[in-house]
Amino acid sequence: MPEEFRAVLRHSHISPRKMRYVTDIVRNKQVNAALDILRATPNRGSYMLIKLIKSAIANANNRSPHIDVDTLMISRLVVDCGPIVHRWRPTTMGRAVPIRKRTSHITVVLKPAEEETPEVKKTAKKDSAKAKSTPVEKPKTNTPKQTT
Q: Which CATH code for domain 5-112?
């Protein structure tokens, strides 16, 4: 089983819904390709994710210096809800409406890309003893003729 390298960003001040939009773009991609995509994405979450992926790459270099960074790919990318900070906004007639400031926990797991092995196609044996199937005719239904 290949080794996994993790990096976690907790309590980030971005809603999980907005962050998932960014993470769906780069999930299951090579690390260098994911960083290129994120640099071209103009969302605030992309900057956070770039730093997190770079941190995971640094973790990979520290734990196993022999690893080739170009072979790493994002195997798991999870965005979970963090704590919600409640605030109140005053409105007319002495009322107040709640504001829910959401936070996120983001986890990136990198894994070396597995070498693709070509699959061997199995040839099916022809069974000459099988009889050809004949199509079955549909039963005729007697519909009453309409008189005009």
A: 3.90.470.10
